[in-house]
């Protein structure tokens, strides 16, 4: 499996392009603020052909480029219905103003072909199989995407803002819930193999094994530690 990624825009949100191999069809994960140019550069560099965009949740730092990217490539986007309103009203999703300077750089709205995600569905896209797990807590419509292990590569979890290296997504925005995100960690992350590579919405990659051993939130979800304070990392 081939994965290329880069941090995009003012919030440094990780955008990923995923394909069976370089030179083949690919899926784009979370094209956020100012991600369109980076996506195009990766497509050219690696000879990729995008066939879909998949979104871990609806916050503007993860979806700001979905309209131009989907429009330029004539491809669909996938998002959980609980977060659909965020595409057209991003400030309502945050409970505060984004700021006029940034708003002037954003393309607000839905792509022409927007498809809904449901818990447990398996997407067959670009020769890949992505398993969707609904993981509310950061937002009501947060999801993760899992790829299976192969002989060559371990399983991969695109965790969005559910799980970071050493932390988890913040829960103080509208629709956020610390208790819900802890349940999502227990249901979605704890059953995974330690070798699972975690590619999150912000920061460095990690593994489930490393987080199981060191992340206080994942340890608390497993009942091994008292509850830590709610995090403030991410948008």
Automatic annotation (TrEMBL):
It comes from the Bacteria. Its cofactor is Zn(2+). Gene3D superfamilies: Ribonuclease Z/Hydroxyacylglutathione hydrolase-like. Pfam families: Lactamase_B. SMART domains: Lactamase_B. Keywords: Hydrolase, Metal-binding, Zinc. SUPFAM superfamilies: Metallo-hydrolase/oxidoreductase (SSF56281). Residues 12-202 form the Metallo-beta-lactamase domain. This is MBL fold metallo-hydrolase.
């Amino acid at each position: 499996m081939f994965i290329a990624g880069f941090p995009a825009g003012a919030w440094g949100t990780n955008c990923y392009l995923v394909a069976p191999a370089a030179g083949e069809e690919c899926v784009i994960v979370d094209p956020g603020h100012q991600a369109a140019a980076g996506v195009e550069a990766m497509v050219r560099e690696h000879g990729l052909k995008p066939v879909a965009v998949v979104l871990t949740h609806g916050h503007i730092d993860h979806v700001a480029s979905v309209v131009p990217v989907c429009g330029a490539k004539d491809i669909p986007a996938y998002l959980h219905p609980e977060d659909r309103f965020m595409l057209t009203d991003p400030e309502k999703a945050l409970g505060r103003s984004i700021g006029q300077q940034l708003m002037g750089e954003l393309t607000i709205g839905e792509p022409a072909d927007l498809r809904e995600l449901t818990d447990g569905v398996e997407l067959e896209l670009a020769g890949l199989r992505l398993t969707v797990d609904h993981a509310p807590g950061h937002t009501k419509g947060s999801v993760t995407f899992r790829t299976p292990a192969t002989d060559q590569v371990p399983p991969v979890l695109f965790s969005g803002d559910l799980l970071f290296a050493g932390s988890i997504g913040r829960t103080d925005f509208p629709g956020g819930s610390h208790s819900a995100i802890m349940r999502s960690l227990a249901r979605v992350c704890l059953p995974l193999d330690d070798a699972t590579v975690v590619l999150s919405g912000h920061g460095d990659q990690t593994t489930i094994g490393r987080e199981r051993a060191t992340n206080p939130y994942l340890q608390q979800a497993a009942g091994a530690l008292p509850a830590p304070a709610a995090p403030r990392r991410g948008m």
